[in-house]
Amino acid sequence: MNVDNFFPELLKKNKRIIARAISYVESEYPQAEDILKRVHGSSGNAYRIGITGPPGAGKSTITNQLAKLYLQNGKSVAIIAVDPTSPFTGGALLGDRVRMSDIGRFENIFIRSMATRGSL
């Protein structure tokens, strides 16, 4: 993969390319550092908000409401939801994504569920 070839699509918020870039970084591909440097240089005034808590605390609810607020104000939102790992597939259980389904209809949102892989 040549970062030069897909970086313009990343800046256009192409969801498929965003997902691929996250996978490369998560899997520690050799190009991961270049991707991170370029994204950081192009991120502008992006906010990073972390929401944590025990099961049932309302993390998905507050995330859903915050995302709606930002989207209604013309912002783009990316959510990385860390879900428990399925004992059968090894992937994320996708519970957070299901609880935030009403924001998925917005064009300027990207939601990625990632499995904990045994640790939080």
Radius of gyration: 15 Å
Mean pLDDT across residues: 80
Give the number of domains.
2
Number of strands: 2
Give the spatial strand order of the biggest sheet: 1-2
- The rounded distance between the terminal residues' Cα atoms is 30 Å
Outline type: globular
Report the order of strands and helices: HHHHEHE
Relative helix content: 40-55%
Largest sheet at a glance? Answer: 2 strands, parallel
* Poorly predicted runs of 5 or more residues: none
Written description of the protein model:
By secondary structure, the chain is α+β, with helices and mostly antiparallel strands. It is 42% helix and 12% strand. The chain folds into 2 domains: 1-45; 47-120, no CATH class. The protein is built from 5 helices and 2 strands; from the N terminus they run H-H-H-H-E-H-E. The protein has a two-stranded parallel sheet with strand order 1-2. Helix 1 packs across helix 2 (15-26) and helix 2 packs across helix 3. The protein starts with a helix and ends in a 5-residue tail after the last strand.
